Amino acid sequence: MNWIEFCTALQDVWGYVCPVAEIALLSIMIYGVLYFLRGSRGASVLTGVILVLLGFTMLAKFLKFEVIGQLLGESGVVLAVAIIVVFQPELRRAFAQLGSYRFLRGKRRQEIITEVVNAAIAMSRRKCGALIVMERLIGMRALEEEGVRLDIKVNALILESIFYPNSPLHDGAVIIRDGRIVAARVILPLTRNVEMLSKRLGTRHRAALGVSEETDGVVVVVSEETGIISICAGGVLKRDLPLDQLADCLEELLEQRRSDGLAMPLLMEEDSISTEDGR
Fold first, then answer.
1. Label partner for 8 (CA 20 to 30 A): which of 26, 48, 176, 249?
2. Structure confidence by residue, pLDDT tens digits, 50-93
3. Domains located in the chain, CATH noted
């Protein structure tokens, strides 16, 4: 078979494969749009627009409204502009995530880690308690509903202001997703493995272990009594990390695609900790 015959055969095969590939591509695109808009205000607007268009189309077809049918057939440009205007926040967020998940993903993750580490160090020096959860693959939307919804870019000063003792949001945890602080004052589930923990550890550390056991999130804990910084993932807690190792540890954990935890021993009763480190 020469090159011309091969190309001809390939075109014949593509003639059968092309419709299937086109349907599959359209299905993926529609599913992606619906999945991205789930739970947002744009989803309700999109549902309303679709219902209105279907209603007018059925009226124009069955009642033979020629003017309405002609308007619907020529409203493509107007509809496209309306969609851009209505879904401007969702489109903006989609393009931002598209850029962050490709070439800029590593750089953006490093910036987030830097802000979290700077905030943790600053709060550690002032002995300001904090509980920061960095979401990975398993979502935490159910936990967000119990807290205060936010949408703020991760910033060290913002985190410090949230956990300031006089702040109304300082109780509970902060959840970070895709470089944004999405919720504050979140109540986390407590760990059930209390027999494996030091009895002197308080609610903040137990909550960090609890959420890390149920999700693959990475948790940064700052003790209110001693200022000790801990990192928790995969149901494993490591306390009193050297400050120069915090960023590297978070970088390694956030790069993992499954909850492998920390390659560190769980804090046991015989570990030396302050008896006042209760929160």
1. 26
2. 787 778 778 777 877 777 777 777 766 766 776 777 677 667 76
3. 3-99 (no CATH), 105-255 (3.40.1700.10)
CA distance 80 to 167: 44
What is the per-residue pLDDT across 83-140, written as a single tens digit (0 to 9) for each? 777 677 667 766 666 655 544 456 678 888 999 999 999 999 998 999 999 988 888 8
Number of other CB atoms surrounding residue 245 within 10 Å: 11
- pTM assigned to the model: 0.58
Give which of 102, 203, 96, 185 is closest to 145, Cα–Cα.
Answer: 185
Neighbours of 66 (CB within 10 A): 9
Instruction: Give me the sheet containing 236-239, strands edge to edge.
Output: 148-153, 180-186, 173-177, 130-134, 218-222, 229-233, 236-239
Closest CA to 229 of 218, 216, 242: 242
